């Protein structure tokens, strides 16, 4: 029984376990706001049970659901004048589709750029004139193309390349377009090019040095000031992500040289006088204001935990999305209080995370540990491996790990080599021995977990989604004696077939990671593919997969499953109608319930041997 807004009834809420409440409780993203109409905002929420886009008029307080699709919608952008909401329509959740738009005040959806065929999205920037858009597209046939589109006119192609690229930003006056590209062939490290609206190059910034020094650049945004040619970018020249200001008009680069450990990102304050600095270090985040005139760095007060996003408002206040492992996410403001609090059921908290540092073959490994309050080891332990691989686990709220803790498990999350947040060398270390490097770090933390008395060596679960699912299947084959079972969501299972079936941008990343195609470096693909080791898998295996997944396509998973079947290996497979994961809360809960049930059944069976 549910209420009219899709929330569970009070009676059902009362009977619902905490782990399910964490998934069902309405949550919101950090609101995006229109630069020239700051009272108009756009955010994502799961209030109806599916993640969709919502318009919010701050002046009146009115909130309105914008999209309503069976598979959910999260990709949207508000035009600078606040008049239009653009959203990406991929019919089957396969990330292949078209941009549509809808008036902010409500109305019918319309095709945003007639004349452009469906594609994978490769960036979008909207002009202040209300009629200009720069649209990035990617297809397997064409690589990346970028089009200038004006209302009432046919879109014009201004960029094309076989390698991956994307729209970075459009300057305040619409005269400059920043593009990130990988024409040098390294998909993990972009160079920058600035174009005129007719496609004429204006400036280039490339830290790859012909591919010999692999340093990346990223677009953080043009200055929000009329006639200003300053472009805020991220660079890795000192071995970590940092911001600098590049004046495209003069070529001058202003290096901020912030004395902060870890990775640093930035965005403009609305008047262009300062930067809002986001600092990520050792799985936690904090904020600062940097004054460009005085070069003064002042901390913006936030609680200890993780800041997942932040934005500076015209009045000088800062809004930010914050959480910790123990406390659910909320949108807060330095002006005081919670900015956007969804109605309905509130999420229960969880237990705090503990930091562990373990010496590994490539240096100190940071792991995050949660365990039931008051529990003493050795405990059944879940190694929950993050995706990416260029990502990291943090002290932030996550319903999945909390569900395992509720059921009596300790949860260990490892920021293995390949993870972000610990410097460029750590992130880039997995090249050419893909998967095997990460497993060495996971093995080191596993040994610590057992020797410390935390983990029961006979009740160890390896699990993860996407790249974490890939490492799960690879780990079960490469380290067959180490794990009691494996639970892999949307994994890479057969690396060669995955390469041939996946979207082009991921093919480019795989060529970078492994040093070529399966035909050029077959020995590396073989060494890094879970399929190579499938006959060594001894533990029960659970796999879930989206049938429309363009990132970890279904055919390569089926190839792996057939090999398990041929051996009579213990395994279960769950297939669902979506892409790379689901935006539907009921579906996500179903998947977690199936995983918990699989673990309970097979741990009992293992204990009985």
What report would you give on this structure?
- By secondary structure, this protein is α+β, with helices and mostly antiparallel strands.
- It is built from eleven helices and 36 strands.
- Helix 2 packs antiparallel against helix 3.
- The longest helix is centred in the C-terminal third of the chain and has 23 residues.
Rg estimate, integer Å: 24 Å
Helix-and-strand structural type: alpha+beta
Query: Order of strands across the biggest sheet?
Result: 29-30-32-31-33-34-35-36
Summed up, the helix count is 11
Low-confidence regions: none
Largest sheet: 8 strands, mixed
Q: What is the average per-residue confidence, as pLDDT, rounded to a whole number?
A: 94
In terms of DSSP E residues, the strand content is 25-35%
Determine the fraction of residues in helical runs and give it as a percent range: 10-25%
Principal-axis shape equals globular
Instruction: Tell how many strands the DSSP assignment holds.
Output: 36
Distance between the termini: 42 Å
């Amino acid at each position: 029984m549910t209420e009219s807004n899709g929330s569970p009834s009070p009676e059902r809420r009362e009977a619902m376990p905490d782990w399910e409440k964490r998934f069902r409780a309405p949550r919101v993203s950090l609101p995006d706001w229109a630069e020239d109409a700051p009272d108009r905002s756009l955010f994502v929420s799961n209030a109806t049970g599916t993640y969709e886009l919502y318009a919010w008029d701050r002046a009146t307080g009115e909130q309105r659901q914008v999209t309503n699709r069976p598979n959910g919608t999260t990709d949207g952008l508000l035009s600078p004048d606040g008049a239009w909401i653009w959203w990406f329509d991929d019919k089957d959740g396969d990330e292949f589709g078209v941009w549509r738009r809808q008036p902010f005040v409500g109305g019918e959806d319309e095709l945003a750029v007639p004349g452009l065929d469906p594609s994978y999205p490769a960036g979008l920037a909207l002009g202040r004139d209300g009629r200009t858009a720069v649209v990035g597209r990617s297809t397997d046939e064409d690589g990346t193309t970028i089009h200038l589109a004006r209302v009432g006119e046919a879109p014009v192609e201004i960029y094309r390349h076989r390698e991956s690229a994307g729209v970075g930003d459009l300057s305040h006056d619409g005269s400059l377009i920043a593009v990130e590209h990988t024409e040098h062939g390294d998909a993990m490290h972009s160079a920058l090019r600035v174009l005129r609206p007719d496609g004429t190059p204006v400036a280039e910034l490339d830290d790859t040095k012909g591919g010999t020094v692999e340093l990346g650049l990223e677009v953080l945004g043009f200055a929000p000031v009329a006639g200003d040619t300053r472009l805020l970018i991220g660079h890795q020249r000192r071995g970590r992500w940092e911001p600098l200001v590049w004046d495209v008009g003069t070529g001058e680069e202003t290096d901020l040289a912030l004395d902060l450990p870890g990775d640093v990102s930035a965005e403009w304050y609305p008047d262009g006088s300062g930067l809002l600095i986001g600092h990520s270090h050792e799985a936690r985040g904090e904020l600062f204001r940097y004054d460009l005139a005085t070069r003064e760095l002042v901390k913006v007060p936030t609680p200890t935990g993780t800041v997942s996003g932040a934005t500076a408002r015209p009045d000088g206040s800062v809004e930010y999305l914050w959480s910790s492992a123990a406390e659910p996410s909320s949108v807060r403001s330095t002006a005081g209080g919670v900015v956007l609090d969804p109605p309905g059921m509130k999420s229960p908290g969880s237990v705090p995370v503990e930091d562990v540092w373990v010496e590994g073959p490539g240096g100190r490994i940071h792991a995050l540990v949660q365990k039931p309050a008051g529990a003493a080891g050795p405990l059944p332990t879940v190694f929950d491996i993050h995706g990416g691989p260029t990502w990291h686990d943090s002290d932030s709220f996550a319903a999945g790990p909390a569900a395992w803790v509720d059921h009596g498990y300790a949860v260990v999350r490892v920021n293995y080599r390949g993870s972000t947040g610990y410097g460029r060398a750590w992130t880039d270390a997995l090249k050419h021995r893909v998967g095997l490097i990460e497993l060495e770090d996971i093995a080191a933390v596993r040994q610590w977990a057992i020797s410390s008395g935390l983990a029961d060596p006979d009740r160890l679960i390896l699990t993860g989604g996407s790249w974490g699912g890939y490492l799960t299947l690879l780990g079960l084959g490469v380290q067959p004696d180490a794990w009691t079972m494996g639970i892999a969501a949307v994994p890479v299972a057969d690396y060669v077939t995955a390469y041939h079936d996946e979207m082009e941008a991921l093919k480019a990343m795989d060529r970078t990671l492994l040093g070529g195609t399966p035909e050029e470096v077959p020995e590396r693909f073989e060494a890094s593919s879970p399929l190579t080791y499938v006959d060594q898998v001894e533990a029960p295996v659970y796999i879930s997969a989206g049938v429309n997944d363009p990132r970890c396509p279904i055919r390569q998973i089926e190839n792996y499953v057939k090999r398990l079947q041929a051996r009579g290996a213990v395994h279960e497979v769950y297939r669902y109608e979506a892409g790379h994961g689901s935006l539907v809360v009921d579906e996500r809960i179903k998947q977690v319930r199936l995983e918990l049930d699989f673990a309970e059944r097979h741990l009992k069976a293992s204990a009985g041997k």
